[in-house]
Structures are given as structure tokens and as C-alpha cells.
Amino acid sequence: LITADGEKLLHKVDLNLSRCSLVHDVGITERYNVIMDFPLTIDLNRLLTGGPLIKYDKQDYARIGVMPRYGNTESIRWFDVAPNCTFHILNCFEDGNDVVVRACRSLNSILPGPEMWEDKFDWFSSKFRFGHGDDAASEDDDVSVFARCYEWRLNLETGEVKERNLTGKTEASMDFPIIHPAFTGLPNRFGYTQTVDSEASSAAGMPKFGGLAKLYFQEPATNKDADNQREEAMIKVEYHEFEKNTFCSGAAFVPKMATAEEDDGWVITFVHNEDTHTSKVYIIDAKKFSSEPVAKITLPCRVPYGFHGAFMPMSLPVPPM
């Protein structure tokens, strides 16, 4: 932990992990830090002996650690969970004795990608399977990188773990989640993700995001959203799809006012149209999510896929009278 100005280290802990897990994201609640120790690992010794630097082992263990904000190694409470690959946490919060963790989870890792001898187009085509019926990747399909919004509830009193999918497989794989920044570590009603265009990703041999999704955590799925829900209670999902051959990166949520409702703001993202070779900024009203963007700003240069950051409020000087 560091100070808000980034100048001073306040607290440092050695987690004493038994492997070098690729921990891409950490979560926080009001009182705890949330650590994901999943079986996607980096190993230089493995590389030196001819193996891959990055490897996902679906047979290895997965666990989530809950540590008091200024705790030590011994204070971490570890919860065993089903093996999975998760890069990005949507939010974490406390609910009674439960620590709730929501993230975009898949059953395999998009890193390191296809082996050198594999055709990357076939690899992405098989890994991003989606659709209905026989075309849909099942929950038991352990080769899929189809990411879904997922929830773990970790009970600090009993040690019990409850985990479930929040979204179905009938629409699109989703990742790079965002929320209203004021709700980080607190219960929240809404979240947003980028959605994968499976066909374009398969053709390009790389993930391409052809739209956005809005997640309604307190509303049940419609019949369309619940089409593949089985016994699970899915949440409502609303989609914003871009024009053909237009793909995004770097989505962020910008609230209109500090006192506004949680979804009273804009989702802002960088998009690139591969037909016209132009990059733009799209500004989408989060309350009218599936509607046309309220603004499209053409940029003077190409914004590469993968670009991302954060919008930070700043004080503007008062102009002279």
C-alpha cells in the first residue's frame, strides 16, 4: 500500500506463494485486500528447460485470499475455488460475513495463446465458440477462453465458498470490466464490459471487441439473456453494438456528477473502423446504453487496439473576468 500521492510506501507483505502466479489484478473492499492465486504462472526455469514462459495448468489449484488491509501473511484467509483464469476484477465488496468478488472468468487462458505449431486462426475460432445449441461452448468445455461475468461469495465465518456464473453464453465473451469509480470496494448495481466479436477474432487471430455490455446485478435476465441459463439465476445484460468492422478498447466510466445515480454518466471508449481506417472516441450515455452515442469524435491518428487508461477529474482554472 502507498499513500494517495504515491510518494510513500505504507505497508508491504510477502505473500509466500508457492508459484509465480500471473496476478494481473487485485481487489479491495472497505476492510480487506483480495488476492487471486490462479494456475496461470510465469516460470523462467521452465523456459530455460524448453517449456513456455507463461502456462495455464487447468489441473492445478486455484484460490482467493482475503487479507485485512494492513494484515500480514498469517492473516490471509485462503478460499479454494474451481480452477479458472481471471485477469480482470469488476468489483469486490462486503455483504455481512461474505466477501463478494465479481470478475470476468474463463476456463482457459488467452495467454500465451496458440503454440508455435498451431494455426492461430483455428485456435481463436475454437476458443471463442459461442452461439446456441450445438454451436455453444458448454460449461464443461475446458478449452474455451469464453469469459463470463462470475461471482464468488467467500464466507469469513464458515469458510464456505459459493460461486456462480452471472451471465450466459448466448451472446458474447466479455472482459475489461469497469464500474462507477466511487463504488470501488462497495456494493454496486451496475457494471460494464467490452464484448468480443467472435467471428472477427477468429478471422484475425486475435481478440477484437465489437461492442459493450451493461450488467444489471439487481435485475434478473430476460428470456433472451436466460436462454442458456440452466439452473443458474442470470442477471440482465444490455448490449451496445458498434458498426460492422468497428472495434473498441480502453472503455472507461465517467460520472456526470459526484452526487448522481450510479449509472448517471458516460461510457467513453476508443474505436477503430477497419473499413474507413479512422479512429474515434465514442461517448455513450449509460442510462440510454443501447442508443446511439451522444458524440463521436474523429481523432487525427490511429489508436491501437489494447490502448487503455483512466479518466481522472481535474480542477480547471477559473478564467479571468
Automatic annotation (TrEMBL):
The keyword Metal-binding applies. Binds 1 Fe(2+) ion per subunit. Fe cation binds at residues 24, 88, 308. GO terms for molecular function: carotenoid dioxygenase activity; metal ion binding. InterPro entries: Carotenoid_Oase (IPR004294). Belongs to the carotenoid oxygenase family. This is 9-cis-epoxycarotenoid dioxygenase. It comes from Linum tenue.
